[in-house]
Each structure stands twice: as C-alpha cells, then as structure tokens.
Design goal:
Elements lengths: L2 E4 L2 E6 L2 E6 L6 E7 L5 H10 L6 E6 L3 H4 L19 H16 L5 E9 L1 H9 L8 E5 L8 H6 L9 E7 L8 H4 L1 H14 L3 E7 L7 H13 L1
Parallel strand pairs: 4-5, 4-6, 6-7, 7-8, 8-9
Antiparallel strand pairs: 1-2, 2-3, 3-5
Length: 229
C-alpha cells in the first residue's frame, strides 16, 4: 500500500486501484465514495465547489477494470462488442467494504456515508444495497439499468437495508436509440424511482439535456448536492 500527499488530497493504492481523498480530514463530515471511469474525481470536486455544496469528503476510486468490477454478473455479448462481461462486482464490493472503506476511515471522521457512480458504476451503487447496509444514500447518474436481468433482480430481492435517500438521473437522449437493449433505460429508471418511493425512501429522478456522455461530472455533482441537502 502506497501513501503520499498531493496538495490537500490524500492518495493511496489498494488492489491496484488509486484512492484519492478530497476535503477536510480533521472534522466529522459526510463522505461520498465515487467510482470513476476516466479519473474525473477532480472535476466533480470542482463542480461541487462551484455549486456551493456544503462541506463533505469525496473519495475517488479509479483505475478499475470497469466492465468486470462494476458488473454484478456475467453477460454474454457486450453491447457494440463481441466479448462478454465476466461480472465481478461481488469481489470488488468485498474489497471496498473490507479494505478501502476501513483504510480511508482511519484517516477521516465520518458522519454519513454515501456511494455514487455514473453509468455502470451507477448500477453498481444501487446493486450494492442488496449486499450491504454500509451506505446511507446512493447517487446513480445515468445508471446502466438496461443491464440484462437487473430489473428482475430488483423485483425479487430485498436490500439488506433500504438507504435513506437515492438519487437517479439520466440524459433525455439516452433512450432514443436503435439499440433495443438501451431503449428501456428511461422507463426502467423511472420505475426504480417510483419503486423506492413506495418503500418510503426519499428518492428523486432528474432528466438532464443530452446523451449519456454529456457533462457527467456536473450530473454527478448535482446528485451529490441533492443527497447532501
């Protein structure tokens, strides 16, 4: 395990992943764990500051094997590609719970704990509540709720604990596609929002302008703003 300080941020490595902490380390604060695809944690942090979000700690987890670490089970034939997804989210969640979070939280004081992610990481964040009661809230930006079998999984399983709050968002162009697999993503996300509201979870769904790839850092920052509010 490697430790060093970069500016005001603590950085270390676990299981080949880079863990970066942004924020004050000397007082109890809400903490948001964020899995990133292209090391966008710094941009999310900057967006949060522009929005005037109250103080919190952001923990960016980068360097993931994205398709494997964020996918809950195997999927034959990845969309637009020929290779299959193996599905090792269970293994990574175990590392997150038993290594990453304990190590991070020896360095900081935590009042509330949240998990955030975009795309497959947004799916992973929601899936995690069915395997741990560790998180008080979930931020899912453009969650990959097209994933085969995921909606049935939600319908037929119960979370370990319903979180206090869940934030969903999506781009308004994401379901407008010729790819049948993706075309139900907005319907599925709206269904999930309504489902958790019926379970008395504070839940919101926000529809943003654009496709899946637009302003992902801003969209995640909006989710963090809402869930910390």
């Amino acid at each position: 395990m490697l430790f060093f300080f970069l500016s005001l941020h603590l950085v270390f490595e676990i299981d080949g992943k880079k863990i970066t902490l942004f924020g004050a380390l000397d007082k109890p604060l809400p903490i948001v764990y964020l899995h990133t695809f292209r090391h966008e944690g710094e941009r999310v942090w900057q967006q949060c500051h522009r929005m005037g979000i109250r103080q919190f700690i952001l923990v960016e987890i980068s360097g993931l094997n994205w398709d494997e670490d964020m996918s809950p089970w195997a999927m034959d034939g990845k969309p637009f590609h020929e290779e299959s997804i193996i599905g090792r989210a269970g293994r990574w969640l175990d590392v997150l719970l038993t290594e990453v979070i304990p190590q991070v939280e020896t360095q900081v004081q935590v009042s509330r704990r949240y998990l955030a992610g975009y795309s497959l990481a947004g799916l992973f964040a929601l899936w995690s509540i069915y395997h741990t009661d560790c998180f008080d809230g979930i931020v899912s930006g453009s969650g990959s709720f097209w994933y085969p079998g995921f909606m049935d999984y939600i319908r037929f399983h119960q979370p370990v604990r319903f979180p206090d709050a869940i934030y969903f968002s999506l781009g308004d162009q994401e379901s407008k596609t010729q790819k049948v697999l993706y075309s139900k993503v907005e319907d599925n996300t709206r269904w999930l929002c309504e489902y958790y509201q019926k379970q008395n979870v504070k839940t919101v769904f926000q529809l943003n302008n654009g496709n899946h790839y637009m302003q992902s850092d801003w969209r995640i920052a909006k989710g963090i703003q809402w869930i910390l509010g």
